Amino acid sequence: MGAALACPPVEAASLSRHAEPDLLGSRVRLRPLTVADALPLLELRRRNAGYLGPREPRRGPDYLTLAAQESELREVAANRVADRGYAFGIVHGDDLIGRIALNNIVRGVFQNAYLGYFVGHDHNRRGFATEAVEVIVAHGFEALGLHRVQAAVMLDNAASMRVLAKAGFRREGIARRYLQIDGTWVDHVLFATTVEDQRPSTGRPGRKARPDTHPAARII
Ligand SMILES: CC(C)(COP(=O)(O)OP(=O)(O)OC[C@H]1O[C@@H](n2cnc3c(N)ncnc32)[C@H](O)[C@@H]1OP(=O)(O)O)[C@@H](O)C(=O)NCCC(=O)NCCS
C-alpha cells in the first residue's frame, strides 16, 4: 500500500498510458507518450536513424537503446506534470509513425511553446505531419491556453517549411546559428502562429486569446 501511495506523480504519469485522451485527427491520432512507448519509439528511431540524424542534435552513443528511450520518456512525463511540455506519438492505424511535441512552454506574458516533430520516412508525403501539426496546435490553443506556437526549420528543409505553411504558420525571418544540429550551430528559419490566426484546415477565423483556459496559463 505504502509503495502505491508513495508513487510520485511523475512516475505515475510516465507509466499510465491512458492518463490523458488521444487527440484525434482524421487519419492520425496523437497519443500522449509514456514509458510504455519506449520500444516502438526505439524501433522507429532505429529505422530512421540515417534520415533523422542530419536534423537533430548530436546524440550520445547509447541513444538508440531501450534505457535511453525510457529515460527520455520519464523526462517527457516530468515535463507534462510541470506544464513544461507535451509530447505525443503520431499514430496511424496501430503504428507509431512519428513524434510531435510542444516544448519549453513559457507562461506569463509569453504563453509560447516551441514545436518539434518528425514522421518516419516510410510514411512521408501523405499529409500526416501537417495533420499532426494542426491537431497539436489546436490543442495548444484550445486546451493549454497558449497564445503562440513557434518552430525553427533548417534552411534546406523544404518539406518541413511546406508543412508549417500548410498548417497556417507564417515565416518570421532567419535566426543565425540558432540551434546546434549534428554538432554544428546552424541558421534556421523561424515560423510562428498565434491564436488569432485563421486555421487553414477548418477555415475558422482565429479568436482573441483566452489566457485563462488552462490553470497554468494564469501563473505569471
Ligand atoms: C518534415 C517532415 C515532418 C514532413 O513529414 P510528411 O508527413 O512527409 O509531411 P506532409 O506529407 O504533411 O507534407 C510534406 C510536404 O512537403 C512537400 N515536400 C516533401 N519533400 C519536399 C522537398 N524535398 N522539397 C519541397 N517540398 C517537399 C510534400 O510534397 C508536401 O507538400 P504538399 O502536400 O504540398 O505536396 C518529415 O519529412 C520529417 O520527419 N523529416 C525529418 C525530421 C524533420 O525535418 N523534422 C522537422 C524539423 S523542423
Question: How would you describe the overall organization of this protein?
Answer:
It is a single chain. With 220 residues, this protein is of the alpha+beta class. It has a single domain (2-205), classed as Aminopeptidase (3-Layer(aba) Sandwich). Helix content is 30%, strand content 29%. It has seven helices and eight strands. Strands 1-2-3-4-5-6-8-7 form an eight-stranded mixed beta sheet, with helices on both faces. Strand 7 and strand 8 form a beta hairpin. Helix 2 packs across helix 5 and helix 3 (38-47) crosses helix 5 (66-81). The radius of gyration is 17 Å and the shape is globular. The chain binds coenzyme A (COA). The site of coenzyme A has 20 residues, from strand 5, helix 6, strand 6 and helix 7. Coenzyme A binds at residues 52, 55, 117-119, 124-130, 151, 153, 157-160, 162-163.
